[in-house]
UniProtKB/TrEMBL annotation:
InterPro entries: LysR_subst-bd. This is LysR substrate-binding domain-containing protein. Keywords: DNA-binding, Transcription, Transcription regulation. Residues 21-202 form the LysR substrate-binding domain. The keyword DNA-binding applies. It comes from the Bacteria. It comes from Streptomyces javensis.
Amino acid sequence: MLDAASAAARRTRRAGRADPRLVLVIKPGGDGGLLPAILDAYQAEPGALPVELVCSFGEREILLREGRADAALLHRPHPDLTGLDTQDLLTETQLLVMPSSHRLAGRTRVCLNDLAGEPLPRWPGATEGGSHKPEIHDLGQLLHLIALRRMVAVLPSSIRDQLRDDLVAVPVDDAEPTTLVLAWPEHATSPALAAFVRAAAAVAGKATGHGG
């Protein structure tokens, strides 16, 4: 309860600034390619505020719950969405990203069992005792380490458009699909936030063929 009250107070202080803005926390490269269109659509909404983007790999949910952000782009099924309202934007299959010289690079498809023994990324906040792999903090770092043959990664299929020439990606047949989710605190009353949610839902609907 104290944490919730502190977060509410922090949001109130931010809303009272002389230059109010909407703070959106995102994972670099983790917007499914939708964010540019969402930002454009939102700016066309009456009363739209400037959007401040905060990039974070492992603290998006924390920043949102602490009241340091108004909304976040998260990926289900991983985060705990308790106490948050959400809007599903995009569901994607997943790909194995690896160096072009990798033993699986010539395959057209793989399954999770094919990755036994492969070094995988260590994400911020993960509890992997004894792991000496570097913690991943941004997409450029991740792709560089993959190119150096230090690890492979299972990532949403939209990552394909951001791959370097020395990397390849193949579908992982039995990897659980991942859903890009726009999340914000329950009971939020900000008209600017409501407009952002509407804009995001409309853009996602058009992109997936479910728009009106």
